[in-house]
């Protein structure tokens, strides 16, 4: 990247940002400049929902060579959100850098846990139960991943589950974070 701040795109929804706001956001991300060889692009999104008491969302998505690191915070003060997101982002980008400069061996998912996934049936007897899909996402990254890479990608995104194409089986598989802090793997039954 010739000029690091040129790789940062700031967008807003429901709020008008001043040039001073945008410059402040970019300045606060200057710590990422030392990781520029790993970063393709950085997107910042500031969103305001006037109907909510905690009405601001500040989100940073960092496109890196092997995936995406995303951090978001919600609150009422933009400048404190910027600081909070940056504090969460720093260890994630450090962890990413350490993994891809160390080039250590793959850390396989612990497959000794034979416990089943607890699936609770929805209460269809109660007429008040009406499940709704409130958000849809499309999955565009179709490259195969090792389960340990999928777990890392899930952690970088801050999610509790992640759908991926398993490099070992060439099937779509989901990893998820369990309540006990370990990880689970859901894959289709063999045909």
What do you see in this structure?
The structure is a single chain. The protein folds into two domains: 4-102, 2-Layer Sandwich (Double Stranded RNA Binding Domain), CATH 3.30.160; 106-113 and 136-191, 2-Layer Sandwich (SHC Adaptor Protein), CATH 3.30.505.50. It is globular and about 55 Å long. The strands form two sheets. It has a four-stranded mixed beta sheet. It is α+β, with helices and mostly antiparallel strands and 191 residues long. A hairpin with a 6-residue loop joins strand 5 (161-165) and strand 6. It has three helices and seven strands. The chain has helices at 19-28, 78-102, 147-157, and strands at residues 8-13, 39-48, 56-64, 67-75, 161-165, 172-177, 183-186. The model is unreliable at 103-127 (pLDDT under 50).
Outline of this structure?
It contains three helices and seven strands; from the N terminus they run βαβββααβββ. It is α+β, with helices and mostly antiparallel strands.
Write the layout of secondary structure elements.
Layout: E1 8-13, H1 19-28, E2 39-48, E3 56-64, E4 67-75, H2 78-102, H3 147-157, E5 161-165, E6 172-177, E7 183-186
Relevant terms:
single chain; 191 residues; alpha+beta; Double Stranded RNA Binding Domain; SHC Adaptor Protein; four-stranded mixed β-sheet; three-stranded antiparallel β-sheet; 3 helices; 7 strands
């Amino acid at each position: 990247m010739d000029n690091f701040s040129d790789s940062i795109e700031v967008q807003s929804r429901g709020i008008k940002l001043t040039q001073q706001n945008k410059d402040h956001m970019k300045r606060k991300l200057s710590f990422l400049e030392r990781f520029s060889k790993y970063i393709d692009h950085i997107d910042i999104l500031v969103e305001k929902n006037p109907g909510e008491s905690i009405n601001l969302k500040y989100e940073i998505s960092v496109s890196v060579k092997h995936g995406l690191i995303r951090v978001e915070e919600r609150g009422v003060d933009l400048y404190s959100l910027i600081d909070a997101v940056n504090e969460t982002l720093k260890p994630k980008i450090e962890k990413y850098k350490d993994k891809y400069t160390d080039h250590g061996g793959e850390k396989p998912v612990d497959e000794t846990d034979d416990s089943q996934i607890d699936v609770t049936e929805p209460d269809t007897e109660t007429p008040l139960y009406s499940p709704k899909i409130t958000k849809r996402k499309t999955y565009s990254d179709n490259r195969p991943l090792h389960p340990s890479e999928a777990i890392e990608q899930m952690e970088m995104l801050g999610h509790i589950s992640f759908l991926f194409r398993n490099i070992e089986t060439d099937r779509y598989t989901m990893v998820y974070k369990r309540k006990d802090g370990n990880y689970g793997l859901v894959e289709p039954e063999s045909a």
